[in-house]
Amino acid sequence: MNIAINYDTKTRKLQLPAQAAALVPQLNLEIEQLNVLTGEIIASGSEVPLPATLETFNKDLSKMIKKLYEGGVQAFQAGKYSEAVKQLSIGIEMISRRHKFESFQGTLQELSLFLMSRADSYLKTKDYLKAFNDADMLIGMMMCTPDNFLRRGVSNYFLGNYEDARADYQRGLSFDEDNARLQTELEICLDKILEENGDYL
Amino acid sequence: MAEETTEPVQEQIKISIFTPIIYVAVLVSIFVTFSVVYRRRALKKLTKVEPIFPENHTATLYEYLKVQYQNPDIPKDQKPHEKVMKAALLRRAVEAIRRSMKLKENEPVYTKLYQDGLVGDEVFQQYQIQTKFQELELKDIVQETESYKKGWVQTFFPVAQEICFNEALRRRLYALDDRAKTLSHMWEHYVAKTEEVNEKEKEVKEVKDVKQTKESKPEEEPKVLAESKPE
Amino acid sequence: MGSEYTYDEEGETWPFFLLAVLSFILVPVTVKYLYNLRSTSDAKSENASIKGAISQEVAVENAAQINSFQAQKKSSKIFNWSLLFIVVGWSAFVYVALNLVKEADLQGAFDPYTILDVSQFASERDIKSKYRKLSLKFHPDKLPKDLTDAAKQEMEAAFIRINLAYKSLTDEVTRNNFLKYGHPDGPQDVSHGIALPKFLVEGKYSSLMIVVYFLLIGVLLPTIVGTWWGNVKSYTKRGLHIETAGLFTRRLTNRDPTKIYTVYDLLDLICLSNEVRTTFKHLDYNQVRDLIARHLNRNFEYVKTNPSLEAEKVKIVAMLPKLIEGLIEIAVVFRQADIVVTACDLQKSIIQAVKPEGKYQELLQLPYVDRKAVEKSGVKKLGKLFAVSKEEAGKILGIEDKTKLEAALSVAASIGSLRVLESEFKVPGEDVVTPASNAHISLKFLVKSPKLKSCPEIDESRLKDEETLDYMRNPASINEKQPVLPYSYSPFFPSNVRNSWTAFLLSQKDAKLVEGTTSYKLENVDLSNLALDQETWKKGEDVTIGTFKINLAVPTPQNIGIYHFRLILKNNAYFGCDVDIPVELEVKTPPSLMSLKKKEVDSDDDESDISDPEEDTLAGALAALRGQSTQPSKIEEQDDDVSDNESVFTDINTDTEDEGEN
């Protein structure tokens, strides 16, 4: 490596000279990630990061996150959907601030709750693309619940992707054949596809 | 008959004793040159083949820091802090785990590609080399952990794995905006347009909420049925 | 003389040697050449004989470039190096055959039947009488006196041969000799001939000969074999350059799980392939991409301003489908369904010269359409064009000219989609799908023109397959009994593309392609339904039912239960006729009678007691799915290959949601 990396002894952070950073963005990204981890290890106080358990899960953060979630749900119930989106987004941001060596399981649980609720709120605020994105991420994390397929399907439907919506509902039904909600939505969607094609049964 | 055959044989020997030797020598040397040239070419080709994974920055970074860490010429307070070293090693392990898993996951893929003749030999060779290399990399990392704290290995890899997963999760999260951009471009779905559509269409009641608040669920569905006409 | 080498001094045998060598090389080369020539048979004339083919002539702006590309391709198929080789080779062959081959001296060969002029099956009596007649004629005592000495000798020789021949057919010993050695006198001298003149081997040129020999064996042969092998090794079995295949493989291995791979990402990747880079060295990457973008947007500005660049555009576009297919093939092994589907869409966009963004591809693939008008209309589907009046359809498509509108609508009406009537897993000869059996997917469908509405009722009995021997042995054999699909209507694409559908089987569980399956091509479809009018269609008596059987290479799961799949059929040329349906596989134990016959079927399962065994297992299977602890099965993807950043999350239990919501 021919590039000199600056090391700040006080902050214990590495830094690439600006020019080099532009030249090798990948390395720069890597250095940033390293700095974050260093900071987290120092902040954790222990000599080496401890394996993730319930005890090492940051409880203060958990409390705050829980509060945000409750706030979001309350706003949703009160019909203040953009407020709900705001609260939930802050919560998601907070979750992503957790130390990286904290329990993945725990993080995932929190995150999926937030994403589900935020997807629902986005559906209400008619940000269907964002709703799609959140639902898509949930499914991407292999959270294959019928509800998540419903979320993505409904988003797709309102985005005009009727074929995709149909595929989502059908996939959801493969996990729960008797899901009434999915069945009705599927019917609506199939009718829509026919209508769009100028066809009828 | 015997008389007839011995005569020409003696004549041939008279012509040159070296003929068979030269013959064999030339033949052998040709084959040797051929195989040497062939192998050298194959090796050259193999080194020319791009490795499966891009450059491993975590490993280079760690090596770079380590040189400084162990350099006696640098005053102690100028050296990277021990925790920086640990973090760098963890990051190196994260990448090593990620790569090892990727290789393992794709093992049947590479075997099938190779068997079906869908890729050249060198891709498969690269795969095998890479697999070996990752094993060595993990071993190397194990040794490194011992130099910082005895017995750290026990907790080191579980922690590294946790970091690996968590980072994957965060990458997904941070990518949400980019994904939205890509999608809106491909679907030609722009916000202005959405709003236009929104005016005409009716909202769909959302699932989880329905469950939670126990609102009149049946009432909602007909709404969707009757009024969900984005056009 | 005994065993000795003789040289070919008189040039008697080497021409034969040469002819043999020539024919060994020439015959396969010629056959291959002719085969290639045949395969380029005219698409138009072939389409004329296929029902439902689109034969609409459409003027395209870059017709000159496309025509010259096709002419060039055609002429390069006729006039190429192999033609030269064949011509020169066969001329040499004829020359050698006519001028150098001397009258073969076949005196050595001895055939008593020809000598006596009797048939092979002649009786002894016939032979005897013939012999008498001949010997009377040739007997030395009976010869006329006025013959010359030479003539006399010849006659005598003939008499001896006749005698020998007669003996060999009648006398026991001579006969044995004839049968064993081919000559009535017993073994003859064997001589090994070298098909070279003596001076080359033993004369002063012998050293030259050695040099030639070494050059041949030591240099030429390894070089030829080496280059041939090198060529073979630098292309995969599917004709993709290995560097390209390596590039695709690396990209798919390292794919960013956070990224959505769009049609353009795949196009970028394909433009990095060895094929594109080496063929268009004189253009840089951005130029290539720009030319393709112009094709996709039907931008023909270069026809006027830069015709040579327009010609390059045509050339680049023509080579893309093969590369896309190569990418699909590799992506199929990776089981990355999203890449496969996106690549299929890219293929269509290229072939129809339609931009991949937006949702109007179905209408934009038609000729003469005005893109702005289409996008403004909000109509996206072909079927809608036939649900409105002609004027309105013209407005939607932005076509004012009547004949042009007719042309566009006629193309639209001929793009048939597949209306699936039945899709199920079947095992030939069984009523149910049994565990670990060789099932196939059976698809029954109607080809439906967009102008036809609704769907006729089809009686169950018409969907049954005839259980012929062929079907029992190989269900997919039914596919080939249907007429082959015509060439696609693709006026903007420089080559002729045979229409086809490609099927992919996905697992509903992880939305990946099912392990062990590949892509399956549907190339035979009867399109006669396209010509039906609405009334006949709705009645349904005269509709043709199409069949597509997909043989799965993997056996069905070991465990009883319901498995969910998604079957996708992508058309290679037209938008708006893909199929995407869920398919359910229910694995059942065979009825008790069957299980008695088959001993492998587990013994501790007494189905006779339980009236409805499936329901039990069904619930079990569903529970298993919910609990994510599905039994590893052969056809289903196993979840335990946790690795890629996404599948990492598999070990999360689904309870999460409930916990949080309570």
From TrEMBL, chain A:
Q: Which sections of the protein are TPR repeats? A: 146-179
Q: What is this protein called?
A: Uncharacterized protein
Stored InterPro entries: TPR-like_helical_dom_sf (IPR011990), TPR_rpt (IPR019734)
Gene3D superfamilies tied to this protein: Tetratricopeptide repeat domain
Identify a single GO molecular function assigned to this protein.
Answer: Hsp90 protein binding
Which key words tag this protein in UniProt?
Repeat, TPR repeat
Q: Which PANTHER family match?
A: STRESS-INDUCED-PHOSPHOPROTEIN 1, TPR REPEAT CONTAINING PROTEIN
UniProtKB/TrEMBL annotation, chain B:
Q: Which residues cross the membrane?
A: 15-38
According to the record, the residues making up region (Disordered) are: 200-231
Question: Which keywords are on file for this protein?
Answer: Membrane, Transmembrane, Transmembrane helix
Q: Might you name a Gene Ontology BP term for this protein? A: post-translational protein targeting to membrane, translocation
Species the sequence originates in: Suhomyces tanzawaensis NRRL Y-17324
User: Got a GO cellular component term for this one?
Assistant: Sec62/Sec63 complex
Pfam families reported for this sequence: Sec66
Record-given protein name: Translocation protein sec66
UniProtKB/TrEMBL annotation, chain C:
**Acidic residues composition-biased segments:** 602-617
**Pfam families to which the protein is assigned, alphabetical:** DnaJ
Localization annotation: Endoplasmic reticulum membrane
Q: Where in the numbering of this chain does the J domain appear? A: 111-182
Among SMART domains, the record links this protein to: DnaJ (SM00271), Sec63 (SM00973)
Tagged with keyword rRNA processing? no
Does the entry feature the keyword Transcription, yes or no?
Answer: no
Name the segments for region: Disordered: 596-662
Q: Where are the transmembrane segments?
A: 14-35, 78-98, 205-229
SUPFAM superfamilies per record:
Chaperone J-domain, E set domains, Sec63 N-terminal domain-like
Spell out the protein name for this chain.
Answer: Translocation protein
Q: Which organism is it from?
A: Suhomyces tanzawaensis NRRL Y-17324
